[in-house]
Write a structure and sequence with these properties.
With 352 residues, the protein is of the alpha/beta class. The protein has twelve helices and 15 strands. Strand 1, helix 1 and strand 2 form a beta-alpha-beta unit. The longest helix has 13 residues.
């Protein structure tokens, strides 16, 4: 089996050593070298030709973002950002995702050695997923035809409530911070209400919601427990909480749930989708965007069985086709579309 070749770039010698040791424990990963700053990294990339780069967001001699921007322009390759759990770290990491980074992991605030060890499985999984990711050219758009899948063998049980409002539910993970931006910036200010779940650390949720809000005509906000779900608004769960949709007469409200992780995630897409299937049924429309793993696939199937139209992002435009591919394999998706077509299709299905 060909091993994933990784170059670790971090100005901290301790972090370089720890990441190297944690990654090297996986027989499918080979750490080919490390670098203390982007200028050294540039030379080692030329000489070692790694498959994946782990990159600290704040480093001396050259800013991590400036290096990433140059790298994606001159030699695009999969990059996993290593970020601090701070508001500044969140802002820089989200900018890095916009520049083309595949995913990110976060440094613990205290107890670095033990903290990184606790995240070892996540770090290794994200690096291996990045090795097979499609690195996005900064301004490239890939136009692909809509693919309609065969009807599911599972019986559809349509559940339509008294409300005439429609509800759009979207889930994403790796690559999703930018994919959600692309979808939301194409939505009109009076679009149906949207409920979102993106796998993201607790400290990143508010900066992420604010970033999406700047790019959308809709009002994008962190959900508050019990608040009414309104058209023209998009709701993202606050840090470390699942988001559920509950029915209140003919309306819907947000329910925040600090319960245990589902599919190793909190928030989890399956939690959101299952609640939408139960509370909105055929009044909902749902989509899974790019992401690692299979979170959301079973919830999307429940939505389809409840009579909701379902779709997923296609493989060609996904950074990682894990979650969308799992939904297709399960028979949960009625359509496969390129990212640039998803917003229009969600609106058309909601109007229908």
């Amino acid at each position: 089996m060909k091993r994933c070749r990784v170059l670790v770039v971090d100005d901290s010698a301790v972090v370089r050593q720890l990441l190297t040791e944690l990654l090297a424990q996986d027989p499918e990963i080979e750490v080919v070298g490390s670098a203390a700053d982007p200028l050294l990294a540039r030379e080692k990339i030329k000489r070692l030709n790694p498959d994946v780069l782990t990159l600290d967001v704040e480093m001396p001699r050259m800013d991590g973002l400036a290096f990433l921007e140059n790298l994606m322009r001159l030699r695009p390759m999969p990059v996993v950002m290593v970020s601090s759990l701070t508001e500044r770290g969140a802002d820089i990491t989200l900018q890095a995702m916009a520049l083309g980074a595949v995913d990110f992991v976060t440094k613990p605030k205290a107890g670095l050695a033990q903290g990184l060890a606790d995240y070892a499985d996540e770090i290794r999984a994200k690096v291996k997923a990045a090795a097979g990711a499609r690195v996005r050219a900064p301004a490239a758009t890939v136009q692909q035809p809509l693919v309609r899948l065969e009807a599911s063998s599972a019986p559809a049980v349509a559940t339509r409530f008294r409300t005439t409002d429609r509800l759009i539910a979207i889930g994403a993970s790796a690559g999703g911070t930018e994919a959600l931006r692309v979808v939301l910036e194409r939505m009109p200010p009076d679009a149906p209400a949207i409920v979102l779940t993106q796998h993201i650390p607790a400290s990143f949720s508010r900066p992420f919601a604010e970033r999406l809000d700047r790019h959308s005509q809709m009002l994008v906000r962190e959900a508050r427990d019990g608040e009414m779900i309104l058209p023209g608004h998009a709701y993202l769960p606050p840090g470390d909480h699942h988001l559920r949709v509950i029915r209140d007469g003919a309306r819907w409200r947000c329910k925040l749930d600090p319960g245990p992780p589902v599919n190793r995630h909190r928030p989890a897409v399956d939690v959101l989708f299952r609640s939408v299937a139960q509370s909105a049924g055929a009044n909902a429309v749902a989509a899974i965007l790019t992401g690692m793993g299979d979170d959301g696939a079973r919830g999307l199937l429940e939505l389809r069985q409840a009579g909701a139209p379902t779709l997923v992002q296609d493989e060609a435009t996904s950074v990682v086709w894990g979650m969308p591919g799992a939904a297709v394999k399960l028979g949960a998706a009625q359509e496969i579309l390129p990212l640039e077509a998803i917003a229009d299709r969600l609106l058309a299905l909601a109007q229908g």
